[in-house]
Amino acid sequence: DAMVIQNPRYQVTQFGKPVTLSCSQTLNHNVMYWYQQKSSQAPKLLFHYYDKDFNNEADTPDNFQSRRPNTSFCFLDIRSPGLGDAAMYLCATSNPANRGKLFFGSGTQLSVL
Amino acid sequence: EDKVVQSPLSLVVHEGDTVTLNCSYEVTNFRSLLWYKQEKKAPTFLFMLTSSGIEKKSGRLSSILDKKELFSILNITATQTGDSAVYLCAVSIIQGAQKLVFGQGTRLTINP
């Protein structure tokens, strides 16, 4: 089945230790998104790629970076995680034809010790 | 600033009750409004609404959009404990690529 896959499901890192979260898709969608969702809050868009074009949200901290080496894969790099970065990280994809519907992966729950 | 507001933030009812969840929005470049259900994992898609006044139905769930008054409602009839979840309303906007702006969610608890 075509889908969006995130690995790992749970990630534990240490304060200040770089961490990378991964996302892959078999939907062949143009757009890939990274959302951050903290406990009991709405998902917050960090950035998205439209094909190879990277679009950063204005309030996304510099600590967060992303790479999209090809259509299928997208990575979220957190250079120096702080305690406040503990959250669920959601990857999603879409195509213009979807009229706004996003297809979400199962998420990666990040803990920072 | 694009904004989506949901109410109530939390709702506790008994199994069998009917509930109505509300979502209002103020955005530029509106494309569609979506409802998602979230149970401790990624959101799962429920409905997408693009036109006013046309009710979407799926079993006990239904939703409608009013583009003049800028709101939507999600109805759940004959609630079951499995309906307990956070219900997220999101509006799709076009800023280059399309993006979703989420509301803060309504936490629905169904007690047996």
Describe the structure.
The complex is a heterodimer of chains A (113) and B (112). Helices cover 0% and strands 51% of the residues of chain A. Chain A contains no helices and 11 strands. Chain A has strands at 4-7, 10-13, 19-25, 31-37, 44-50, 53-56, 64-67, 73-78, 87-94, 103-104, 108-112. Chain A is globular. Chain B is mainly β and 112 residues long. Chain B contains no helices and 11 strands. Chain B has strands at 3-7, 10-14, 19-26, 30-38, 44-49, 56-58, 61-66, 71-76, 85-95, 97-102, 106-111. Chain A binds chain B through residues 30-31, 33, 40-45, 48, 50, 53, 55, 90, 92, 94, 96, 98-107, and chain B through 31-32, 34, 41-45, 48, 50, 88, 91-92, 96-105, 107.
Distance between the termini of chain B: 41 Å
Strand content of chain B: over 45%
Work out the radius of gyration of chain B: 14 Å
DSSP strand count of chain A: 11
Please name the two chains that share the biggest interface, counting residues whose Cβ lies under 8 Å from a Cβ on the partner chain. Answer: A-B, 27 and 24 residues
Describe the oligomeric state of these chains in a short phrase. Answer: heterodimer
| Number of helical regions of chain B | 0
N-to-C order of helices and strands of chain B: EEEEEEEEEEE
* Count of helix runs of chain A: 0
Number of strands of chain B: 11
User: Whole-Å distance between the termini of chain A?
Assistant: 36 Å
Classify the helix fraction of chain A into a percent range.
Answer: under 10%
Structural class of chain A: mainly beta
